[in-house]
Design goal:
The relative contact order is 0.12. The longest helix is centred in the first third of the chain and has 15 residues, at 2-16. With 232 residues, the protein is mainly beta. It has 2 domains: 1-16 and 31-154, no CATH class; 155-232, no CATH class. It has one helix at residues 2-16; strands at 35-37, 46-57, 60-62, 73-84, 87-92, 99-106, 116-123, 129-139, 145-154, 167-177, 187-196, 206-215, 220-230. Helices cover 6% and strands 50% of the residues. Strands 1, 2, 3, 4 and 5 form a 5-stranded antiparallel sheet that branches. The protein is built from 1 helix and 13 strands, in the order αβββββββββββββ. The protein is flat and about 55 Å long. Bound molecules: calcium ion (2 copies). The site of one calcium ion has 7 residues, from loops.
Length: 232
């Protein structure tokens, strides 16, 4: 609801602007072109794509499909589509958000197959809302793709670090990269900021950076370095 109000506020402000420009097509982002891969290893490809859930324009809210214009905002979810069990099945992987920062395959569990999916979504007028995940798949009993395990989920109480006293989580993000040659494969880096109750939203009091490596024994990510920095 809050997001809808923010979207509509932005749109109404844009509509009230004195120069009425002709809307351009939306700049394509990750997953505007679907990602096609055999994620569950059953020999047939699945399709990772965006599904629009609502459109917002100066005329108000409307149902998808959303017009391809940069003055139309969308709510979206990430889903995996699989042709199986005599039809197409959709598996929703995310919450309803506004945009995709990245989405790509990687070999997160280091079994030699890049069949895991890493993605990050943002939401809100300033993009402070975040949801990031690394997901591993399997073939379900019905022959359709299913989630084997969510290997990493952000932000969660166990992935945002210990909050400094008197603060709350403001925003953060995930990077997936070969950050350390000490560990094989790619590592994760999460960075988040914390605000005090009376902080303006713009100016966090603390920032934390944490690096994570995959632990094959436990089948999950474990932090190997974390640093909390006081700002100003
Ligand atoms: Ca497959
Ligand atoms: Ca793998």
């Amino acid at each position: 609801m809050l997001r809808r109000l923010l979207c509509l506020t932005v749109l109404l402000a844009a509509a009230a602007a004195p120069t009425a420009a002709v809307a351009a097509p939306r700049t394509p982002g990750p997953l505007d072109r679907p990602l096609v891969a055999d994620l569950d290893g059953d020999g047939t490809n699945e399709t990772v794509r965006l599904r629009e859930t609502a459109c917002y324009s100066s005329g108000g809210e409307s149902a998808p499909p959303c017009p391809n214009r940069d003055d139309v905002f969308r709510s979206i979810v990430v889903e995996v589509a699989d042709t199986c069990a005599g039809g197409e099945r959709m598996l929703t992987l995310s919450r309803e958000m506004d945009s995709v920062t990245f989405a790509r395959r990687l070999d997160a569990d280091r079994d030699g197959k890049a069949r895991e999916l890493a993605f990050e979504l943002r939401a809100g007028a300033s993009g402070r809302g975040v949801q990031s995940k690394i997901v591993a798949f399997r073939t379900g009993a019905d022959g359709c793709v299913a989630v084997r395990r969510t290997l990493f989920s952000y932000p969660q109480p166990q992935t945002i670090g210990k909050r400094p006293r008197g603060t709350s989580f403001s925003t953060g993000g995930l990077d997936v990269k070969n950050f350390s040659s000490r560990y094989s494969g790619q590592e994760l880096r999460t960075m988040e900021s914390y605000v005090r109750g009376n902080d303006p939203g713009c100016c966090p009091s603390y920032e934390r950076t944490t690096y994570w490596r995959f632990e094959p024994k436990g089948g999950s990510y474990t932090p190997y370095r974390t640093r909390l920095r006081k700002l100003r």
